[in-house]
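Quick start: what a row looks like.
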Amino acid sequence: MRKMTRHIFLAVVIAALAAITTGTAAAAFVLPSIQLPAVLSISPTNGQLVGVADPVTIDFARPVSDRALAERSVTVNADRPLDGAFSWNGDRELVWKADGMLPANARFTVGAGTARAQFGTNGGTRADANMSAHTFTVFIPGQVPRVMRASMGKPGDATPVGTFPVLERQQHVIMDSSTIGIPVSSPDGYRLDVYYAERLTWGGVYVHSAPWSVGQQGHSNVSHGCINLAPADAQWYYNNVGIGDPVTTHW
């Protein structure tokens, strides 16, 4: 009886090894699934109205170890799924940007794990900064385009080329050259009270009022990379622009 039991045991072991080799016993050896951290916030927020270039940002409560899994957990839908691409700011913030622009006057649902948010887009207000013509043109659907004189980044401090969403609107901001590596005490340094400002990059590129460069606006580029407008034009743009509205800069 003992010999027979040993033979049966060996047969069971051999069968189990064969099953593992062929994959039929894989279920018995499944590793614990990776759990994503909780979602702290989704931007745009629920009910927010934004411009057609606004990205979707997901903030997680803890660092994400499996980025591919986190990306698969995110859906962005209007009346159909939208095509876009993911990027990461650090290990907790996931950003999704649409291929091209979001549809105007549309509503969207964002899912990230169990979190949900719904937001809408405006009619498609956009701006064009022509660094060769020194103009800043704003297009609001249904209105005549407003063309304004402007001054952009001087040689060595050129305004970056591309399409950027408005990230923030600030009626007043202190601009300090030391934040971009230029000491305030240097000949090229500055610390200024700036009004009617729209942030285009987290690196410090803005559209803003610049009464000190009105003489150069429309003629030459003299800024440290920002788009300078006359005070009245800057105030008008501030009153008509929204978060996520695109600004395209080019030569």
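That is the whole record. The helical segments are 2-22, 67-72, 231-240. The first strand starts at residue 39 and ends at 43.
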